[in-house]
Write a structure and sequence with these properties.
With about 500 residues, the chain is α/β, with parallel strands linked by helices. It is built from 15 helices and 12 strands. The protein is flat.
């Protein structure tokens, strides 16, 4: 089978990324070269702003705190050194180019970690060179904080400018050549176009021949001249990547073709047909002395769990101290409002599906649990007068700070569902119990986006699970802080609160 470009595909077939609606102009693309220029501008602007921030922090510290002006040229060399180190670290870890593929919080976190590395090296350097006499600890701290804020703000600005354009296809993030069946190439091209990766040419598989005439009588694969011609045709296209789409029986042939393409200055990928979705959630990892494809990973490392737990304990203690007057007043009001206990202990699934008992202020006249549980609905007659106020303001969930303190829950995480609902929805929604790979939370990403309250339809629960799994797969301490702030100030938190 000889190779052919997509020009040989029927005229009615077009790449989704290249199709244009009638009566509309095609969007003007910024080429790969211009993207490189924009990334250089991002690095240059960060270099200049870091230099200015480091110098301004030291100068203003002496001027405003020590109340005297230093020599204007005193901190220029040090500020240039800090900016140069920041630039080298960023380039060495390819942080600027990864703006094409990383989410915002990862891109910013990499910048912050680079700042810590830079100042660790900077402090060590001025100490070893014995030039730290004029450098106080406060000056270094002021510079570190100033540079950190500058890097975060600069990168957030560039991310907001570049990433939407890359995702929409206005900027060509990468140029790719596809090799494989035309239908498979069309599907892959459409997926790649969603992230700004543009398909510039496509080819069918070249012809190969099995050869078993060697002395060992082992079957090998030889590349025929039309495959070498394929390599020659790819060379002037100056692509960034070549993707070989292959079926399972043709993988040995694809590996030989990849070897032939290795003489081109591009990244060569082999993608088994039908595994694009699987590979989208997998990572190639080292496992002992072997290499494996990891499909899912534990969402939090032991270190991350320790950080999250420490934050939960400190915040829960502070919350209980601050809210103690409210807790006492609400408990007294519940006793006056209706008969029954102040607290209601609900059985829920916690971390790793282990049963826990979640505390809430009693807001109903009944104490339903287990299979008898019925979720509250709008104008539910079971809800007391005081209960309506507590549920609308989320005050009924304040006792869960005790659950956080003893370790059953976290401040932020997927909200625990009634056990009967869990078992029912687990049969209908795949990966439902992945929600319990972290501790349940008092608040969560689904709640601050308005997905709370009654789950009387499958679609409502699916949206909630999607947000919970997004939180699990993208956890960071900054993400937790963002959700807590949104819990206090977002109107969506109070949607469906009844």
């Amino acid at each position: 089978m000889s190779y052919a470009s997509f020009a040989n595909v029927p005229a009615s077939t077009k790449f989704p990324a290249e199709s244009v609606d009638v009566g509309r102009e095609a969007p003007v693309r910024i080429g790969r070269g211009r993207l490189a220029v924009l990334l250089v501008l991002a690095a240059a602007s960060e270099f200049l702003l870091v230099t200015a921030a480091a110098y301004a922090a030291a100068f203003l510290y002496y001027r405003l705190v020590l109340l005297h002006s230093p020599d204007p040229a005193q901190y220029i060399p040090e500020s240039l050194l800090i900016a140069t180190l920041q630039l080298l670290v960023s380039i060495g870890h390819r942080q600027y180019s990864r703006i094409q593929t990383q989410p915002r919080h990862v891109f910013l976190w990499n910048g912050a970690s680079g700042v810590f590395l830079v100042f660790s090296f900077f402090v060590s350097t001025i100490f070893l060179l014995k030039v730290s006499e004029d450098y106080s600890r406060a000056t270094v701290i002021a510079q570190a904080v100033s540079v950190l804020l500058t890097v975060l703000c600069t990168r957030a600005l560039w991310f907001s400018l570049l990433q939407p354009s890359i995702a929409s296809g206005l900027i060509d993030a990468r140029r790719v050549i596809l090799i494989g069946d035309p239908n498979h190439c069309l599907h892959f091209s459409a997926r790649a176009a969603a992230t700004g990766i543009r398909t510039i040419r496509s080819f069918d598989f070249p012809t190969f021949r099995a050869d078993s005439s060697g002395p060992s009588r082992t079957s090998t694969v030889q590349v025929l001249p039309d495959a070498r011609s394929l390599v020659a045709d790819c060379r002037p296209l100056r692509a960034d990547d070549i993707v070989i789409l292959t079926s399972e029986p043709d993988i040995p042939v694809a590996l030989v073709l990849a070897g032939a393409l290795s003489e081109l200055p591009v990244d060569v990928h082999v993608v088994p047909v039908g595994t694009v979705d699987l590979m989208a959630v997998s990572r190639i990892t080292q496992f002992g002395n072997m290499v494996t494809m990891r499909i899912f990973q534990c969402p939090l490392t032991p270190f991350n769990r320790a950080i999250k737990r420490a934050f939960d304990v400190v915040a829960a203690i502070a919350g209980l101290i601050v809210a103690s007057p409210v807790l006492a007043i609400v408990a007294f009001a519940i006793k006056l409002d209706s008969r029954g206990p102040v607290l209601f202990r609900q059985r829920r699934h916690g971390y790793n599906n282990e049963p826990i008992h979640v505390l809430k202020f009693r807001s109903m006249t009944v104490m339903e649990e287990g299979d008898n549980f019925r979720p509250a609905t709008r104008h539910d007659p079971r809800v007391t007068r005081l209960g309506r106020i507590m549920r609308r303001t989320n005050i009924d969930e304040l006792p869960q700070l005790l659950n956080v303190l003893v370790g059953d829950m976290s401040l932020v995480g997927p909200r625990p569902q009634p056990t009967a609902q869990n078992e029912a929805f687990a049969e209908l929604i795949s990966s439902f119990f992945r929600r319990h790979n972290v501790k349940p939370g008092i608040t969560g990403w689904a709640q601050v986006n308005g997905y709370r309250g009654d789950t009387d339809t499958l679609e409502k629960m699916q949206r909630r699970v999607e947000h919970d799994l997004y939180y699990i797969d993208n956890w960071s301490l900054l993400f937790d802080l963002k959700i807590m702030v949104m819990t206090l100030f977002s109107r969506k938190v109070y949607w469906n609160a009844y």
